[in-house]
Amino acid sequence: MTRASTNRIITRLEILGRDLGFETAREVSPGVPEGYAPRTDLVWCGPRLEESARGEVEHLAARAGVRSPLVDGRLPVVGFEVEGTDPSSKTM
């Protein structure tokens, strides 16, 4: 379960991204090879691509052997992973 402070930070980043003109999406899996697919807390995206451009991105991703990086037809620009827990001395 996500901590309330983490949700507040993500919400603030979401508002900032929209104010800067980006579209936002939460809990996005990046375009990585099949298998383990971590989820990014928040992504700022550009505008929706036209169908021909989306097709080209999908084609290039397939040739590279990765999933498409598109998020609802939009190209991600910035991704945020917000850590809401205190790191242990082991991870510092």
Give an overview in words.
The protein has 92 residues and is α+β, with helices and mostly antiparallel strands. The protein has one domain (4-80). It is built from 2 helices and 3 strands; from the N terminus they run αββαβ. The protein has helices at residues 4-19, 51-64; strands spanning 23-28, 40-48, 74-80. A 3-stranded antiparallel sheet has the order 1-2-3, covered by helices on one side. The longest helix is centred in the first third of the chain and has 16 residues, at 4-19. The protein is flat, with a radius of gyration of 15 Å. The two termini are 22 Å apart.
Give the key terms.
single chain; 92 residues; alpha+beta; 3-stranded antiparallel beta sheet; 24% strand; flat
Number of domains: 1
Strand content: 15-25%
Average pLDDT:
86
The rounded distance between the terminal residues' Cα atoms is 22 Å
Q: Extract low-pLDDT stretches.
A: none
Q: What coarse outline follows from CA principal-axis ratios? A: flat
**Going across the major beta sheet, what is the strand order?**
1-2-3
How many helical elements? 2
Helix-strand string: HEEHE
Q: Can you count the beta strands?
A: 3
The helix/strand class is alpha+beta
Q: Helicity range of the residues?
A: 25-40%
Radius of gyration: 15 Å
Sheet of most strands: 3 strands, antiparallel
